[in-house]
Write a structure and sequence with these properties.
Structural class of chain A: mainly alpha
Strand order of the largest sheet of chain B: 5-6-7-3-8
Number of helices of chain B: 6
Number of helices of chain A: 10
Helix content of chain B: 25-40%
Radius of gyration of chain A: 18 Å
Shape of chain A: elongated
Order of helices and strands of chain B: EEEHEEHHHHEHEE
Distance between the termini of chain B: 31 Å
CATH class of the largest domain in chain B: Alpha Beta
CATH architecture of the largest domain in chain B: 3-Layer(aba) Sandwich
Number of strands of chain A: 0
Structural class of chain B: alpha/beta
Distance between the termini of chain A: 29 Å
CATH superfamily of the largest domain in chain B: P-loop containing nucleotide triphosphate hydrolases
Largest interface: A-B, 27 and 30 residues
Order of helices and strands of chain A: HHHHHHHHHH
Number of domains of chain B: 2
Number of domains of chain A: 1
Shape of chain B: globular
Oligomer: heterodimer
Radius of gyration of chain B: 17 Å
Largest sheet of chain A: none
Strand content of chain B: 25-35%
Largest sheet of chain B: 5 strands, parallel
Helix content of chain A: over 70%
């Protein structure tokens, strides 16, 4: 087996054995269920403002998983070993990103379906919302890698990660909310796919550069 | 000892005028030495003298402040060396066998993982989790990387830390075997590991 597949399998297994998507999912459902409590039960108001809030909750849920992504590897010496791998560090970082998307991003996107329905999204729009969330999660993770790598050496770097990456969460949020509220769904999905590809192509390169500095 | 073992291409490590700084303070400068195939370099020095920094610079993690580190007849140094440092590189809830499989995938030249673990005295530990291992057993697991993927250059930082008498003897045996194979060992130590070093360096003196 090559470095990509062993890294993917190991990270995926660790994310599942450590409670997996349960904690981010709980966070996501908790946040979305607070929305009707805060806005009141009026159906029209909820139908207009509710579905985009699914996106905010998903963005914050994935943000919370980023803090330990590289920090643990830096502390326990695993990063030193990754630097001696036959595969470039960028490739290993991409494997970790894919594992994070499969273990946490995809379950969050699927959880978007019941959450969107609960917030009065029309049922026929739900598949598009799930698809947009799946793409958006990839974009968030691609950008989040960089924040996680830069703050790997910082104790309690979670807040710092949020400060670094939240501005870059704006484009996916804008177009994801457009999908959620039903405006020009096709074009918005294409732009989200672009954000996801861009994030996953550039994120590992920048994250690996930051991690090389951390190894000093 | 050249050209007898698996490492036929006579690797050579040459360090010239090396200076290392940490936190703006120069730990040592003007360090020069060379290690040919089959040689063992023992690095000594007081706490804070720069032993770990020297090993990490040789591994390529830490850019030197001045001087050169050259690996002769080795195309890609990062793929020709092993680093065993203070941090063992273990995940507390990933089994011993999974660690071995992961490393053989990561380093890309799969040796016999089972045999490597058995040689380190970890035979039958495959299902154990590192959080249930003692410090010495965890160090043995980290050392198993040296055998899982054969690489010519070993950079060891206090490799005998937490090892018992039998473990130290085993480590000395590994180093001897690696030298006989034409490999190079550089180890930072406080107590001699056993094998007679071809070169004893003292840093920061």
């Amino acid at each position: 087996m090559n470095a990509f597949s062993v890294t993917f399998r190991r990270d995926f297994a660790m994310m599942w054995s450590g409670g997996g998507a349960l904690a981010p999912l709980g966070y996501f459902f908790g946040a979305t269920m607070l929305v009707p409590l805060a806005m009141g039960p009026e159906r029209d108001l909820l139908a207009a403002a509710g579905p985009p809030l699914v996106w905010i909750a998903a963005a914050l849920a994935v943000l919370a998983t980023l803090e330990r992504l590289f920090q643990a590897d830096l502390e326990d010496g695993s990063l030193d070993q990754m630097l001696l791998s036959r595969a470039p560090l960028e490739w290993i970082v991409l494997a970790k990103a894919c594992a994070l998307w499969c273990a946490i991003g995809l379950p969050l996107a699927l959880a978007g379906a019941p959450a969107a329905i609960a917030l009065q999204a029309p049922v026929e729009r739900v598949p598009a919302i799930v698809a947009s969330l799946a793409l958006g999660m990839a974009a968030f993770i691609g950008v989040g890698l960089v924040g996680a790598a830069i703050t790997a050496g910082v104790k309690r770097g979670g807040v710092l990660i949020a400060l670094i990456v939240l501005p870059f969460f704006a484009p996916p949020i804008i177009f994801g909310s457009a999908v959620a509220s039903g405006e020009d769904v096709g074009a918005a999905l294409l732009i989200l796919a672009g954000c996801a590809l861009g994030g996953l192509a550039l994120g590992p390169i920048a994250a690996a550069a930051a991690l090389r500095l951390q190894a000093e | 000892m050249s050209g007898v073992g698996p490492f036929q291409d006579n690797p050579c490590l040459r360090v010239d005028g090396l200076a290392i700084a940490r936190g703006g303070r120069v730990l040592f400068s003007g360090l020069s030495f060379a290690a040919e195939a089959g040689e063992y370099v023992e690095v000594r020095g007081a706490n804070g003298a720069g032993k770990t920094s020297l090993i990490r610079a040789l591994a390529g993690y830490l850019p030197p402040r001045a001087g050169t580190i050259v690996f002769e007849r080795i195309a890609e140094p990062a793929l020709a060396l092993h680093y065993v440092g203070h941090a063992n590189g273990l995940k507390s809830n990933v089994s011993v066998a999974s660690h071995a499989r992961y490393w053989s995938g990561l380093f890309g030249r799969a040796g016999d993982e089972e045999a490597a673990l058995a040689r380190l005295g970890l035979g039958g530990f495959g299902a154990r989790l590192p959080r249930t291992l003692s410090q010495g057993q965890a160090r043995r697991l980290a050392l198993s990387r040296l055998l899982i993927a054969p690489r010519p250059i070993w950079l060891l930082d206090e490799p005998a830390a937490a090892l018992d008498a039998q473990g130290r003897e085993m480590l000395a045996g590994l180093i001897d075997a690696h030298r006989a194979d034409g490999g190079i060992v550089v180890a930072a130590v406080h107590e001699p590991l056993g094998p007679a070093p071809s070169l004893a360096l003292t840093v920061g003196a």
